[in-house]
Amino acid sequence: MDWREVAVTVSSEGEEAVADLFYELGCQGVSIEDPELFVQYIESGEWDYHSFGEVKLTGTSVVKGYFPEDEELADKLCVLEQGISGLLERYPDWIIHTKGISLKEEDWATAWKAYFKPIYIGKNFLVKPTWEEVEVKPEDVVLELDPGMAFGTGTHPTTTLCLRTLEDMIKPEHVVFDLGTGSGILAIAAAKLGAKVEAVDLDSVAVKVAQENVDLNNVGDRVRVLRGDLGTVLVGQADVVIANIIADVILGLLPDLKRILKPTGEFLASGIIDKRAEEVEVGLKEAGLKIVDRVEDSGWILFRARWA
């Protein structure tokens, strides 16, 4: 099957909203190329193993989605165009440009790999794609990934915020629920820190990729991957519940949180763009939680909360 790559150039603050449009259309692959993020990692020395050459800062990101070129493509592109027009009406200062190209199956399967390189995150996490070779130090906690079409390579601020926080809070034998597991990176990280993890996602592709990554990292005895509605397929209560999704989904999860989070547990809410942070903060407090930490990176927010 051939595929259509649709690349939307948008002001950095609009990348989440555009990605949401792709996801709502059932897009089986979404990538975000953010030059500002690349520069931050390069200057910090976290990307030691490669060179991207010159990276130009434009104030924009490129959000790419991939659709099969079938009989539904024209309707999906029409809905996408309407969605982008709606965003421009609400946020006229966003710079949006759309371009589409056709890709052969083999080209589509590797198109997103160009920017996924080994990277250190936090104290000891080393996120490594399967196709890259690196020298591993004894203290490294290696997270080896082949994310495929699922979101979550570890390089986006929403994920790095979670990884850094998990490194400081996970204790051996903690029970962790990872809601919206994507590639499974956070579930695998928690397992390698000693936790027992239930990883849940609605998307069948994400579930398949997450299970493959769990097996690749030899943590199948500590991670169970489930497909289903977030928060509704889980039994029992967790010491830590992770929701690295988007603001609307996090708010929708809060009524069910009492059922799945222990009285002494902690909730990590990430994937929140700064413009939605106040709304999520209010929702957390109304659900009976107190915020014990708020961390920001590149306009993205993570809340760490406990029962009040």
Please describe what this structure looks like:
The chain is of the alpha/beta class and 308 residues long. The chain has 2 domains: 3-103, Alpha-Beta Plaits, CATH 3.30.70.260; 151-307, Rossmann fold (3-Layer(aba) Sandwich). The protein is built from 9 helices and 14 strands. The protein has helices at residues 15-24, 35-44, 73-90, 105-111, 157-169, 185-192, 204-216, 247-260, 277-286; strands at residues 3-11, 30-33, 60-68, 97-103, 119-121, 125-129, 141-145, 175-179, 196-201, 223-227, 238-244, 261-273, 289-297, 300-307. The strands form 3 sheets. It has a 7-stranded mixed beta sheet, with helices on both faces. A 4-stranded antiparallel beta sheet has the order 2-3-1-4. Helix 5 runs parallel beside helix 6 and helix 8 packs parallel to helix 9. It is globular and about 50 Å long. It starts with a strand and ends with a strand. The model is unreliable at 45-57 (pLDDT under 50). Keywords: Cytoplasm, Methyltransferase, Ribonucleoprotein, Ribosomal protein, S-adenosyl-L-methionine, Transferase. Belongs to the methyltransferase superfamily. PrmA family. Methylates ribosomal protein L11. It is an enzyme of class 2 (transferase). InterPro entries: Ribosomal_L11_MeTrfase_PrmA, Ribosomal_PrmA_MeTrfase, SAM-dependent_MTases_sf.
